[in-house]
Design a protein that fits this description.
There is one protein chain. By secondary structure, the protein is of the alpha+beta class. Helix content is about 20%, strand content about 40%. The protein contains 1 helix and 8 strands, in the order H-E-E-E-E-E-E-E-E. Strand 5 and strand 6 form a beta hairpin. The protein is globular, with a radius of gyration of 18 Å.
Length: about 100
């Protein structure tokens, strides 16, 4: 009986965490501009092969400039809502 109670407790906790954590299914409201290319209601990763990487964030969430392609590596800059960033070391941009 104790195992069943523990199992149900773990499932309930997992369910509550799933509801509490934000998901990537929600796109940012606005426009993200990566090296002159506009992305409306952006969500996910936007790679770039141009140097330096230029980001204009006209959304309601932060845009993270990543050091590696496909949003791998470390964050090298952050463009907050309403801000722009230029990065010599950025290879992609991630936004929720």
């Amino acid at each position: 009986m104790r195992r069943i109670t523990t199992a149900f407790g773990a499932l309930a906790t997992a369910g509550m965490l799933a509801l509490a954590l934000p998901t990537s299914a929600h796109a940012a409201n606005g426009t993200l501009i990566v090296n002159g290319v506009e992305h409306d209601s952006p969500s996910g990763c936007y790679p770039s092969d141009q140097w330096p990487l230029r980001v204009t964030n006209r959304t309601d969430g932060p845009a993270y400039v990543m050091s590696g392609a496909d949003c791998a590596g470390s964050v090298v800059a952050v463009a907050q809502p309403g801000q722009s960033a230029v990065s010599e070391f950025g290879s992609s941009v991630y936004i929720r």
